[in-house]
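Prompt: Have a read of the protein record below and flag anything odd:
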Amino acid sequence: MSARRQRLLPGMKKVTLKSGEERYEITLDAGTDPGTGKRRQTRKRYKTLEDAKNAYSKISSEVGAGTYVARSTVTVEQVCSNYIAGRHNLRATSLSKLAYDLAPLRERHGELPVQSLTRRHIDDLVRDLCVGGTVTEKGKSRRPWSPSAVNKVITTIQQVLADAFSQGVVPRVVAAGVKRVPMPHKEMSTFTAAEVRTLLAAAADNRLGHAWHLALAGLRRGEIAGLRWSDVDLDAGFLSISKSRVMAGNRAVENEPKTATSRRTLPLSEPLKASLRMARASQRRERLAVGPEYGLGEYVVVNEVGQPYTPAVLSRYWREMTVAAGVRSIRLHDARHTAATTLHLQGVPVAVIAAWIGHADASFTMKVYAHSQNDALKDAASVLGSVVTTK
């Protein structure tokens, strides 16, 4: 029997184009639109009856299984925007970081239908982020991003496309196979005990000396910036971590601690207590000198007019302090590493160290923070040498 005399399936018809060519058109129910919740249809044309029947069978099967993805004009920008809008459970800082990680994709391919996005698009974006030169929304050229930053972009794009796939917007996650950028090995930097003493001695006359005491006591940068005098009891000798002041885009915001273990109360060492008393007295003098324009005076670490610092400014002053003290310029966060490592080298149990610096998992503390320094390794060699000997 010829194709012309074969029986057409329901929803299938033969049409003649203006050119005189014949096509087989199928119109099928395509299930519910994930965006509107309404029923939808799909209509496609094929050159041969065989192609039309194969497509008919495939579409019907996918619709029945709930995996059919109809053609869509939804753009990359719309998918990214909808994903961010759906993350209403995130903090302002996390939302800001999410938008930051998606910015390169939205700027380059925002107007592209998301179903037209390919793995090559993403691979090229990854490469360009690594070498530099991607263009921001304001037309500025970006410098090369670190492997860590680029890998976060890859992960975020994969999450966005996986969400679009789960909603039936795209037929597959084209970013699933994108390779991570190799991470270079990076040694963790910490101060030795001698360097800690040198820096704190140099900071004794610095108006932010108490901030560096807090850092070397194991507080996070955001915890230092968000610490209030109401959280400090100098008479009883305790301070409580209840807030963290962090950046959300271009503005500083305060958050509750991320985990229950980050919310903690710590006893004050005598040097830290003395440093905080000096800072309190200094701020009272500054308040008298400035007068009514002085800030509320709530925060432990403030500028000369009583305003709290942003975390980035604290990092800048820390770098200047390390240079002035003549010690190695390690990151402000590495002062926290220093505290954990110092406690470890003094034999403090890892579980206690984890509680001190606010970790829920002591094994994570051991893996990330508590590593041996060169001086400690030399001491270990001496101990080993005194035991393993032929004399």
The CA atoms of residues 106 and 125 lie 11 Å apart. The mean pLDDT is 86.
